[in-house]
Structures are given as C-alpha cells and as structure tokens.
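Quick one:
INPUT:
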C-alpha cells in the first residue's frame, strides 16, 4: 500500500525531532472541556442503559430488540425516573431529582470531582457524596472507589490503612567472631581533638563492642580503624555486616575484606532493624555520655572509651553474661573491684589450665545460646502481634516509601511514595523491584515494609514478558531472609493511619442510592443470583439488558535481612 502513494522523504536531525506525544507520554494531559446540557442529552440517547428508559417515559414505546422480560423490567424501574427537558433524571425521596450520567461521561465527572483542582484528590466517600448531590448513575460508589484507588497521585501521598509489617525472622550466632557488625553515628559536635563521628564494631554473639572516635567517615579511615582497632586485636571474623553507605561499599573496603577472607554483607536500604544491636549501642552510648559531657560538648570523644568499658563489663539481658565474660573468658577488673576483698582463685593443677578454660567457655557459650534463643523467641512473639501480611508476588506493581527528603523542599509537602515499581523477585522479607518505565534497569532490593501495593493502570505487556528473564541476575544478588537482631534492637513505629485512608469503604445511607430492584445488588455488595433465571439466554453486546447494567471497570486491579 505504501508503494501506491506518492511521497518524499526528508531527513530531520535528532536534535530537531521533538516527538513529545510519543517520547514523553507521561507529560501529555488530556484537555477536559466543560460539559453542557446538550452534551448530556446527546450522550443519553447513545447509552444502552439510559435510552430504553428515556424512550419509554417520553414516547411510551420500547426498542424492537427488547424482549417481553426486558419490557416488564423497564416499566418497573421507570417509576424511579422522570424526564425534564428531554433529559433523564433520577427521583430522590428527599430533595430535587438528579441527572443520570451516561457511561461515556462518567470518567469526566470522576475527573472533575476528584482529580481536578475542584476535587483536589479528596477521599472516596466525599467524592461519592458530592456526586450524588448533582448526578447519579448505577453503581456510582463502586466506580468512585475503583477510580480513587487507581489515582497515582493519591497513592503517592496517602498512607495505607495498615502498613505492611512482615513477621520477624531472627538469626542467632553460634560462636564468637561469627558475625561482626559495624556502623557509624554522627555528625556530632567537633571535639577538641577534631573528631566528629564514632565508628563501632560489635560481635553479634557476645555483644562485645569497640567504639572509636574518628574525624571523618571516608573509606580510608574506616579501613584503617578496622584493621588497627579490631583485626589486630581480635583477628578476622567469618562475616562482616554493615549498611549500604558509600564508605562500606567502596572498592577499597571490599578489597580489604576479600584479602582477609571475610564475607561482607549489607542491610537493606532504610531498614536499620537488620543491624539492630549496633543501633541500640548508639542509643545507650548517647544516653550515657549526655549525663557527664561538658556544657560545650567539646570533650565527648574522651568519654567514648569509658562508655565502651561500661558496656563490655555490664551484664547483658540477652545472654545473662557480660560481653567480656563471653568474649575474653574473664571479667574485666576495674579500680572499684580491686578495692573490695576478693576470694582467692581456685587452684588448677599444672598443665590443666587451658583445658579447664576451654571446657568452661564451652559451657558458658551453651548457656548463652539457650538464653539468646529464649530472648529471641520472646522478642518475636511481641513483634509479630502487629504483623500485616504483604501479599506481594512477582509481577505485582508497588510503590516504595520515600524517607529521604529533597534539599530545599518542605518534607511535609513531598510525596511519601515513589513509583510505580514492578516486583521481579520476592522472598518472605525482601523484594527485588525496578521501575515500570525502565524495564532493563538493575533490580533494586528493598524490605517489604517499605512497599505499598499499587492499584493503578496495568503494566506494559513488554515488561511482563521481561520479568521471566530476571532469574540469573536475581540469584546473583543473594539476599538472606529478614528478622530483628534479638533483644538489642529498636522497635519499629506503630502503624499510622493516613488521612482519608478509609474513605470509599464505609457504607453510609445516601438519599437516592441505587435500589435493589435496579441492579440486584445486595446491601453487602454481593449480587442476588437467585433473581436471575437460569434459562435466560446470555445477551449479546447489542442487546439492552436493564437488569445487568454494563458498567465500566477501571483498570486498577528481630530483623535480620543482610544482602550478600
């Protein structure tokens, strides 16, 4: 067919070829015109549901395609309507009649009463109430609920009724130096020695910690302190757990871990509960230092060693021992203890001391493991009382919570969620997601508590096909299951209910609500199938079925989670 046409090809440079309608679809907005009485009148005559009723009330006859059953139904429900100036209106028990909106104009009405500047994205209940004061159509509240649920702007701003809260999954270390966690706190006031941060290293089994004030948090500083203050004193550990800071994820620090044979793991973004023990250490450290720090806070770094001594020699509730007893095999002697009379040590036969110490430590570690297991079980039982299942599967569309605000903008006016994203892989605690608009980007790993299920438009078909090609790259990422580090972790905040989050779900009595005889809808939203004859043939699209009104369906359809 192209060969039969006469045309001339002209080359246009890419910089001059701006096809905004295709390359920037998300920036194109439909221009909504103002409706008038004539628009409603013409649209009602083309509506399969309204025109049979309007014709019967105005002319007293029926359409030729209508059966005897449809005619009887039309006569029955026509008592609820009236014709004013050739326009069909719905009678109301109290108040004036309201115009019946045809199917082709319902999107426009929903846009005006919810999305436009007049609606300002108010909740579903308010939209339905405002619509029912001026117009009506069958299943109006259902359409409003689906429309509001699929509004992308509302989804990014409003909090869900119940935030996702997956069950806690704990992991108990079996021996010292199995996992060493690290974190940095600051920025603190610059001290007399020029320090602004504190870096901490903590053994997950014994809770023994080393706290070091540092002037900056560069990768070189982190690597040097790790080697000098931990590895040179206690040796290397099997695993190293940290957040996803640029200093810990730098090539320098990765090379240090590779040379030492340490398996480096990282927490999921914005989920500090994975490293909850270290986070609790910072909380206790700041509480202790605030009691004796000077008024100008210039000597805080001189108090850090004493805080470390206090934490390591003190009894820990999760293990029933002090960190020093489990890590060093003895209690730390302090000046105060030396002032008290001490019992003489139990004599040990010559040559049996190493074996006696090893046997004692094995018994102590076994007791500590039992105590930690009981503590983790109690912590999980308390945390799981408020569990909200995620119900997110591969291929689902989600929004991700935004916790970091933009510089120079008011945090309260920013959107709370970003997206939409599509889930390419999911386990019981983490999900791999990537933007719908970027199907070939590397998946992003986030905790399920950061997500909110999306009910907007469907994802493009080409993206659904691409989901099946993500197996190899997802397996390479290697995420462990999630849980809270028992006993020493920070609790998550309680679920908050967003404004208008329940709107559109509450059943209220509205004047002029759709009667049961019109569309067989029960008060609970179900359909009474018993009123439909089993022998009634299935109508084709061209037939006028007054009983089953065709309606538009909007396409809305302790924590341990380290990442290898």
């Amino acid at each position: 067919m192209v060969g039969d046409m006469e045309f001339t090809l002209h080359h246009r440079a890419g910089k001059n070829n701006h096809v905004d309608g295709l390359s920037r679809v998300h920036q194109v907005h439909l221009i909504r015109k103002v409706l008038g009485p004539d628009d409603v009148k013409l649209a009602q005559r083309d509506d399969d549901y309204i025109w049979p009723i309007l014709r019967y009330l105005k002319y007293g006859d029926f359409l030729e395609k209508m059966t005897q059953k449809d005619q009887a139904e039309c006569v029955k429900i026509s008592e609820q309507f009236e014709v004013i100036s050739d326009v069909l209106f719905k009678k109301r028990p109290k108040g004036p009649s309201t115009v019946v909106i045809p199917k082709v104009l319902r999107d426009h009405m929903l846009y005006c009463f919810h999305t436009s500047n007049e609606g300002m994205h108010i909740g579903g209940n308010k939209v339905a109430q405002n619509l029912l004061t001026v117009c009506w159509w069958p299943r109006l509240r259902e359409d409003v609920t689906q429309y509001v649920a699929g509004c992308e702007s509302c989804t990014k701003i409003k909090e869900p009724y119940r935030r996702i809260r997956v069950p806690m999954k704990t992991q108990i270390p079996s021996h010292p130096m199995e996992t060493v966690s690290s974190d940095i706190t600051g920025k603190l006031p610059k001290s007399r020695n020029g320090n602004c941060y504190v870096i901490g290293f903590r053994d997950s089994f014994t809770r023994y910690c080393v706290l070091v004030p540092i002037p900056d948090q560069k990768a070189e500083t982190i690597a040097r302190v790790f080697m000098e203050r931990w590895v040179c004193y206690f040796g290397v550990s099997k695993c190293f757990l940290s957040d996803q800071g640029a200093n810990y994820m730098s090539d320098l620090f990765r090379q240090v871990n590779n040379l030492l044979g340490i398996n480096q793991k990282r927490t999921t973004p914005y989920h500090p509960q994975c490293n909850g023990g270290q986070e609790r250490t910072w909380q206790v450290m700041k509480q202790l230092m605030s009691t004796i720090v000077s008024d100008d806070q210039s000597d805080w770094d001189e108090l850090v060693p004493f805080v470390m001594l206090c934490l390591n020699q003190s009894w820990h509730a999760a293990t029933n021992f002090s960190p020093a007893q489990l890590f060093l095999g003895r209690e730390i002697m302090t000046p105060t203890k030396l002032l008290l009379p001490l019992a003489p040590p139990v004599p040990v036969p010559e040559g049996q001391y190493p074996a006696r110490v090893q046997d004692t430590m094995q018994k102590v570690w076994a007791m500590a493991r039992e105590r930690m297991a009981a503590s983790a079980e109690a912590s999980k039982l308390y945390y799981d009382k408020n569990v909200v299942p995620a119900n997110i599967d591969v291929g689902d569309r989600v929004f991700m919570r935004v916790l970091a605000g933009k510089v120079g903008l008011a945090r309260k006016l920013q959107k709370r969620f970003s997206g939409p994203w599509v889930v390419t892989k999911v386990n019981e605690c983490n999900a791999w997601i990537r933007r719908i608009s970027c199907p070939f980007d590397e998946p992003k790993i986030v905790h399920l508590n950061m997500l909110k299920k999306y009910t907007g438009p469907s994802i493009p078909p080409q993206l659904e096909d691409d989901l099946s090609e993500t197996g190899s790259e997802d397996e390479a990422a290697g995420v462990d299951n999630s849980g809270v580090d028992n006993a020493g972790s920070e609790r998550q905040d309680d679920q908050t209910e967003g404004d208008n989050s329940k709107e559109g779900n509450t059943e209220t009595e509205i004047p002029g609500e759709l009667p049961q005889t019109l569309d067989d809808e029960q008060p609970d939203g179900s359909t009474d199938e018993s009123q439909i004859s089993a022998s009634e043939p299935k109508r084709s699209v061209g037939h006028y079925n007054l009983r089953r009104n065709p309606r538009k369906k909007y396409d809305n359809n302790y924590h341990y989670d380290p990442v290898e």
